[in-house]
C-alpha cells in the first residue's frame, strides 16, 4: 500500500496557490515580516554556519561557486536520508511535492505570475542549453531562416557563448557580439553599444531571433541595465530575450515581470545560500514558446512541460533543489533578510575595493552603481599580465603561495578612442582582480590580498616569471641566437674592413 508523502524537513510551511512561505512579491526579494522566527543571527553563529570553510584560505571569491551554511546542508542531508530510506516512496510521493514547494518559494521571491512559470534546473549552464536547444530546433524546423541573427554580449559567460555556438550557430545563426567597453563608465555607454550592435545584427533586413543578455557579467563583472536592454529588444523587434542572470538572486533585486524577458535564469547556489547545484529558469506563461521548451535530458516526463521534465531527469540526487525554503529561512535570520545582506555586501565590497585600489595606485573597473557584491579592481601594471594564461597563473600562485582565492581578469580590450587606463606609475593596467563580499568575509581577507600583491610588486615580480619554461627558454634562446648572429655579422664586417 502506498504511504503518504514524507514530510518536508523540519516544520517548513505548506504551499498554497503556488505561493508558499509568505514572502513579498519579488521587487526587493525581501523577507516577509511574518516569517522572522528567531533573533538576528550573531557573528558567532555566522562563523559556526561556515565552520566547514578552509580556515587557512582568504576566500574573496564567493562569485564562482557561492557558499552554503551548515543549517542548509543539514536540511539537505535530511532529504538525502529520506530518499535513501525508501527510494520508491520518495520518488513517487515525496519528490514532486518537495520540488513544488521550492518552485513556489522561488516564484514568490522573483515575482513570477504563477508557479508554473518556474522550473528548477541544475545550473545556469543547463538553463542556457534549454533555451539554445529551442533556438536550434527553430532553425532546423524552418521557423528561422539560415543567417538570422543571435546577439550576445562580448562578456557573455564562456560556457554560454559555447552553448550559443554549439547549438545555434551550428544550426545556421549569425552570431553578433556586443563589444562592451572596460573599464566601464556608465550604463548609458553599455546601452549605446547594445543599440549599435543591434543595428549591425539587423543590417540588410536580417531578423534577430534571440538576444542573450547577462544581468551581471562574470568577467569582468558589471551590472548590465538589463531592463533597458530588454525594452530596446522589444522596440527593435527581437523575437525573444534570454537573460543569463547566473549571479543575480542575492546580489540585486529581481522582479521577472518588471524585467520582462522571455527567459530568465539565476543560480540559487551562488548568492542565495543553496547547496550546489540549483538554479531556476523563469519562462513567461503568456510567452510564445514556453510550452515548446524541453530539458536537454529527455526522460519519463518528456512533453509534460519544462517544470515537470526538469523534476524527473532520471535517478539522481534532488536534495539541493529541495532546500530553497531552508535557504530562505537562513537569510531571514539577518537584519533586512536578503535585501539587508546584499546592501551590506555591496557597501563592504566597494569599501574593500577602494582600499585595494588606493594601496595599489589603481582604480575600480566600474562605478559603484554598476556593482553588486562583486567589484573589479585594477592590479599594478608592473605585474605585466599579458594573457588569460598569465591571469590564471597569477591566480594559482596567489592561492598556493598566499592562500588567497581571487579570480583575475586579463583586459585585452582597448576602448576605441581612449588610451588604456594606467596606474599611478603610468603603467597600463591589464590585470584586474574580481573581489566578492559575502557574509562570512572579514577585512583581513582583503588585507591579505593587498599585502600579497604589494609583496610581489616590491620583489619586482612580473607574470612572465610564471610562464612555462619552454616558452621563456625559447624566447631567450631566440634572443641569444639573434645576438650571436649580430656579433658574428659585426665580426665579419670588421674583418672585411680590416
Ligand atoms: C554570467 C554567468 N553565466 C553562467 C554561469 C554558469 O553558472 P553555472 O556554472 O552554475 O552553470 C556563470 C558562472 O559563473 C556566470 O557567471
TrEMBL record:
<dbReference type="InterPro" id="IPR015421">
    <property type="entry name" value="PyrdxlP-dep_Trfase_major"/>
</dbReference>
<feature type="region of interest" description="Disordered">
    <location>
        <begin position="1"/>
        <end position="37"/>
    </location>
</feature>
<protein>
    <recommendedName>
        <fullName>Aminotransferase class V domain-containing protein</fullName>
    </recommendedName>
</protein>
<dbReference type="InterPro" id="IPR000192">
    <property type="entry name" value="Aminotrans_V_dom"/>
</dbReference>
<dbReference type="InterPro" id="IPR015422">
    <property type="entry name" value="PyrdxlP-dep_Trfase_small"/>
</dbReference>
<feature type="compositionally biased region" description="Pro residues">
    <location>
        <begin position="1"/>
        <end position="11"/>
    </location>
</feature>
<feature type="domain" description="Aminotransferase class V">
    <location>
        <begin position="102"/>
        <end position="379"/>
    </location>
</feature>
<dbReference type="Pfam" id="PF00266">
    <property type="entry name" value="Aminotran_5"/>
</dbReference>
<keyword id="KW-0663">Pyridoxal phosphate</keyword>
<dbReference type="InterPro" id="IPR015424">
    <property type="entry name" value="PyrdxlP-dep_Trfase"/>
</dbReference>
